[in-house]
Design a protein that fits this description.
single chain, mainly beta, Jelly Rolls, 4-stranded antiparallel β-sheet
Length: 338
């Protein structure tokens, strides 16, 4: 299964690309955001570097929730294969009086970044926007609605430190409209997800709700270069800015697909002591890794060998401790090697 969490939007075409080793893909099922599904027969052997035909999706451009595919090994001693899913994004046509979907605020678009968006499913009255596309600490959020109208009742913001903030909205948004700027309480914090509760608007077209965020001054440190040793073999799996009110955090591995046999941590911004890691694999198994080391900015952990064959990683939980009397923000990056 390939969950479609790295990109939000409506797609009209798909394509599969295969790397690493030959594989026979039998068929795949595309599950859309409205709960409908589309079965695609393939039954073709894909060599490394080859691609499927361009697959046209029925019913126009739609939000994709996940794609499941069935496959079979090829050859007497098959090696690991990576299947990448590509999509051609098609922006929805604006309705009467709608504004540009890209602008979070007509009067002030500086300093805002898109955290995620979701096409409203009229079979539900609540939905979730996971904030996986952006890392950083945010102090303000804003909603922007395109496509149709929706009556948003309330938001529930889940922060990276486990705290939750309920925000009453109770406003009907027309196509192209934007909410007020919503100030988040306390210091700027990492956002994990946003749950929004809404009501249908009779006769309205499907609506897409986008959440924009404004970071605290300074933001997280910029993304650095890959590890210097064998850089081409390493892949960035995820990064997290640590919250100093916590001693535990999670890096979900949604940015990369594949099977990994080695891990490495890199630290930026401020020193931090990492105590240990808990690696959860795609099959539900776990591995505990003792670290107990203070990392200075720009330093890396030892290369961590994973047991058994290369495996899919679902998430990595890490425990840490502050360093120094006035610790500043630190970013921990997780790198993987196939």
């Amino acid at each position: 299964m390939i969950p479609v969490t790295a990109a939000e939007g409506r797609f009209g075409k798909l394509e599969l690309r295969v790397h690493g080793h030959a594989i026979e893909i039998l068929d795949m099922r595309v599950e859309f955001g409205d709960g409908e599904s589309y079965d695609v027969p393939l039954r073709s052997i894909f060599r490394p570097g080859s691609s499927s035909r361009v697959i046209d999706l029925p019913g126009g451009a739609r939000v994709i929730r996940r794609v499941e595919f069935r496959y079979r090994k090829v050859g007497p001693r098959p090696g690991p294969a990576a299947v990448a899913l590509w999509g051609l994004r098609v922006e929805p046509e604006p309705g009467p009086g709608s504004g540009a979907g890209a602008a979070p605020a007509p009067d002030d678009d500086r300093g805002w970044e898109l955290l995620g968006r979701r096409e409203v499913n009229w079979a539900l009255d609540r939905d979730v926007i996971p904030v996986t596309a952006a890392e950083g600490r945010f102090r303000q959020i804003r909603l922007h609605v395109t496509g149709g109208a929706v009556h948003v009742l309330a938001l529930r913001v889940h922060f990276g430190n486990g705290e939750v903030e309920d925000i009453e909205v109770r406003h009907r948004f027309g196509p192209g409209s934007t909410s007020r700027v919503i100030d988040l309480p306390g210091e700027a914090r990492v956002i994990q997800k946003i749950v929004f509760i809404y009501e249908k608007v009779a006769g309205a077209r499907p609506a897409t709700v986008a959440v924009w965020g404004r970071q605290a001054a300074g933001g997280p440190p910029a993304a650095p270069a890959p590890p210097p040793a064998a850089a081409s073999d390493w892949e960035l799996l995820g990064r997290r800015e640590v919250a100093w009110g916590l001693d535990r955090d999670v890096i979900p591995v949604t940015a990369a697909e594949g099977r990994f046999r080695k891990l490495q941590l890199r630290v930026h911004g401020h020193p931090i002591e990492v105590l240990d890691l808990d690696v959860e694999f795609g099959n539900g198994e776990r591995q505990d890794v003792a670290v107990r080391e203070v990392f200075r900015p720009g330093t890396s952990s030892r290369v961590i060998d994973l047991p058994g064959d290369a495996r899919v990683i679902k998430k990595v939980v890490f425990w840490y401790r502050k360093v120094g009397p006035r610790p500043g923000p630190a970013v921990i990056e997780l790198w993987g090697r196939h």
